[in-house]
Amino acid sequence: MLSTTVIKEIIKVVGKENVLTTKEELLCYAYDSTPRAFLPDLVARPCCTAQIQKIAKLANEHLFPLVPRGAGTGLSGGSLPVDGGVVVDLTRMNKILEIDEENLVAVVEPGVITFQIQEEVEKRGLFYPPDPASLKTSTIGGNVAECAGGPRALKYGVTRDYVLGLEVVTPDGEVITTGGKTVKSVTGYDLLRLYTGSEGTLGIITKIYLRLIPKPEAKKTMMVVYDKLDDAAQSVSRIIRGGIIPVTLEMMDDRTIRCVENYKQMGLPLDAEAILIIEVDGPQILLDSQAQEIAKLCQDCGAREIKIAETEEERESIWAARRSVSAAVVQIKPTKISEDISVPRMAIPRMVRRLKEIASRYNLELVIFGHAGDGNLHPNILCDQTDAEEMQRVEKAIGELFKAAVELGGTLSGEHGIGMMKAPYLKVETGEAGFEVMRRIKEALDPNNILNPGKIFRGDTNG
Amino acid sequence: MDNKTIKEYLNRCSKCGGCQAVCPLYGETHSEPLVARGKLFLMKNYLDGNLDLSPKMMELMSLCLLCKACTVQCPNRIPVDELVLSIRREIAHHKGIPFVKKNVFQHLLQNNGRLTIAAKLAYLYQQSGLQWLMRKTNILGLLPGEIARKEKLLPRMAKIPFRAQVPKTLSSSKPRLRVGYYTGCLTNYVFAETGHAVLKVLKNHSLDVVIPEQWCCGLPALASGDEESAVLLARRNIEAFKKADVDIIITDCASCGSMLHEYGDLIGGRDARIFSQKVVDFSQLIGDVIDFQPGDKEVSGVATYHDPCHLCRGQGVVEAPRRLIKAVPGITFREMEESDRCCGAAGSFNLSHYHLANKIGHRKIRNVIESGAQLVITGCPSCIMQIRHQLELQEASVQVMHLAELLSKTY
Ligand SMILES: Cc1cc2nc3c(=O)[nH]c(=O)nc-3n(C[C@H](O)[C@H](O)[C@H](O)COP(=O)(O)OP(=O)(O)OC[C@H]3O[C@@H](n4cnc5c(N)ncnc54)[C@H](O)[C@@H]3O)c2cc1C
Ligand code: SF4
Ligand code: SF4
Description:
heterodimer; A: Alpha-Beta Plaits; five-stranded antiparallel beta sheet; 18 strands; B: alpha/beta; Fumarate Reductase Iron-sulfur Protein, Chain B, domain 2; binds flavin-adenine dinucleotide
């Protein structure tokens, strides 16, 4: 609980209308896109770096937690105030400060919605590639804090690859700027990389310098159907080795295909084991031959059917299948637990089989889709959060699927972060020593454990 | 909707946040309690006994445009607007309806005589110069709240209600259809010109028209949680149009139209269902049921179209109005950005939440201006009121009119 003095101090900083304290309003900042919720003591909606600094100073003086929050679309519980305290809502800091067309840099505040940045830069013939499926709602600050990825990561990389500079309010209320408009920078430790993906535990990001690239001229999309999952995986590897890097290489497993077809009747084959959606981009004149080349490779690997989109409508309809996955799968059961393990590309078939085996052992509904090109799979367990017994089985199955991923040389999380949901499993991947290094960094930068306590490290003793 | 269904829907929200991208209120405020996800979570907490119907809760539940933007995009197909209506009903049930509203729903709207007198008083107030004086001297500016500026939002009342200006039936020599015309309150008491335009277009298409005695559609009552009044009004309208023995029922008001479509579910029974099945929007009758035959007068200018929420998402009418606009000789049609984003009118939302509605309206006007149109065409009188007010606030020299008026200008 916050004392009335503290509440008054916070009101002095951000203004009365930007402080929320009623239970009704607090409840609306208690959740993110995970099924969990924790009530904060207060929500503050600052408008600038200086206000955030003051709030951080207050937090250290009076020892209350600060939980940075963007749009609250996180899938690992990153913005959940698990220990109460103050949620720092950054959505009012939503200005695009500059688009420098000469240096190919955009300077933005953290609360800008990623899609808006893309729209603005594309108007100028430029391109900001990272495209999490949540791009129309999630904030760029949240993307940087989670190092969000997306389908285009295969060719263009993830958020980290586009962060050139950051302004950060440290846990004790100082402001630092690391990096900036230059592409090269080796002054001291690479703090950019440290803060990118730090999940709101090391600092509050208040300004972001993003690298832009010229916008590719055109794209071409195809859908490839496989009788055998292994053939699909083989194709993925052959395509990439063949020298063409598609922008996206998305996969849906048999169960996903059936769900989508049930939901939308778009003529997908119900007996196929996998579908790949492949898109290439670049200069128009190259695309036809690239598409043909890929089609041939897929054919050689045993593809049963290949559909290359010739018109914008055909392209749309292929993507519509992929986009309706989320909606289609919740028709099975209302609660969707999305994981995002990543494994080396060629381990995909083995991983899929392990996943299916685990699901059947725990008698759970499981669909698998994701970014086959980079081995980042989204196994989704469909369950009912009001069924406590089932949720226990889900818990156990998740533990096993993380273990399986690590055993196959993979990682717990390709893009959603550790947050609170995966904290209990972190050591499976990092080991004791790796965990200890991270914990010491956290302790050094945030000795009072002000920023986002209970994330990444809890599950062990020291939050 | 019963409690079990409501709970099931609430349980279905995966909190994906997708509604943030489309909710006009969230777009302007970035405030989580105003977006569907927040409201659903609050409702869930209320049903779980974790929240009361506190003043804050009531305020938050009043903050919804019922624009259905979230409903149509929700991956989990949650009918958010219907859930908001059901919690408002719950609030009305436990907390009662504010005195003024109650008076309007239960007395004024159910009594056309009194309603006409009220409208006349409003007309006199506007004509007497009192309104002019008050605006000029800014006396209203001394009054609390936003009364002064809101007052400008109020439309100029028609001197004589539209239905009193025209005969109850209009026959044509070789009628193709017998059309029942549901005029809606705004056309009747404020925008008589829209009513005349509708009749002019119908007359040019060999249709018999009947305008039976009729009552408010009941949407304002329902939106405030007063289902009882809504049901009463619905029954009367069903009865009136049954007696009129028409083939089809048209309306020039998107909101009334979507409400009339609900009668079947609201009341149940054969009569109500038949009534609802007969309802089409004016643009559907002219554009889809019969072939629009424009007159030969040219109307020059660049026009754009605003999709009323209750027409595009409420009734799935998107294409017919555009086709009709393009068929008007002399008109160049230009699509605006976000044509289907709510203008902020939302019944009386623009009166109860004036500032917020202005922010939403501001965005609409920006899109209108950027389209380069000199004329905004739409299919709902409340949108016309809101868009006109917003155009005035921003001193934009753009005209707004009902589709029927545009079409009627060709004869
Ligand atoms: C339907 C759906 C699809 C998704 N698809 C993808 C996908 O394809 N790829 C992907 O990577 N993710 C995806 N996500 C997950 C999520 O959208 C991303 O993690 C996103 O980056 C979160 O952004 P946000 O603004 O919602 O942040 P929040 O959820 O509010 O916060 C996320 C974390 O960032 C911290 N944070 C937020 N802003 C700041 C700041 N300014 N400074 C410091 N810390 C901050 C928070 O404390 C928290 O730890 C998806 C989520 C949903 C619901
Ligand atoms: S889009 Fe639907 S499921 Fe997603 S948060 Fe909004 S209401 Fe819930
Ligand atoms: S109906 Fe409209 S205003 Fe209401 S929550 Fe949905 S999108 Fe927002």
